[in-house]
Write a structure and sequence with these properties.
With about 160 residues, the chain is of the alpha/beta class. The protein has one domain (about 5-60, about 100-155): CBS-domain. Helix content is about 40%, strand content about 20%. It has helices at about 5-10, 25-30, 55-60, 75-80, 85-90, 100-105, 120-130, 150-155, and strands at about 15-20, 35-40, 45-50, 110-115, 135-140, 140-145. Strand 5 and strand 6 form a beta hairpin. The N and C termini lie close together (about 10 Å).
Amino acid sequence: MKNLTAKDVMQRKVLPVRTDWHIDRLANFLIENFISGAPVISDSGKLIGVVSLTDIVRNESFPVQDPKSATPHGYYINELDYDYSQEDISSFRIENDKMVTVQDIMTLMIFDVDESVSVQQVADYMIKGHIHRVFVTREKKLTGIITALGLLKVIRDM
């Protein structure tokens, strides 16, 4: 194992996503491919970020408060009571039709290693960074991915 490099253990088939994908498309993509995260690439194929199920959950964990259920501050109620009914006040809200995309939730910090880096260095990098995947590059081009599960398979097969 001491002689193994990132190139030796990386998964060559990398499933990237695009910044303009809506969160529903991303979630379905991850589930259909049995993966928990993926690299985000630009239209030119450049690695620009990473997105994972954690990012989806993090986004969904902070829902926008429903204005109908929110009680306006007392000052505003008193001022509005003169011209508007309580029903009118409760219906005030701003519509937001923008759907959340990968661009909105992706992580811009990319953890990548060169193909020649030792497996021990990859593992150390993942442990210190508290990350589940590292992208393998050659001359800054994406050539593979190493996941925590992939490293466990390498250890099992030794």
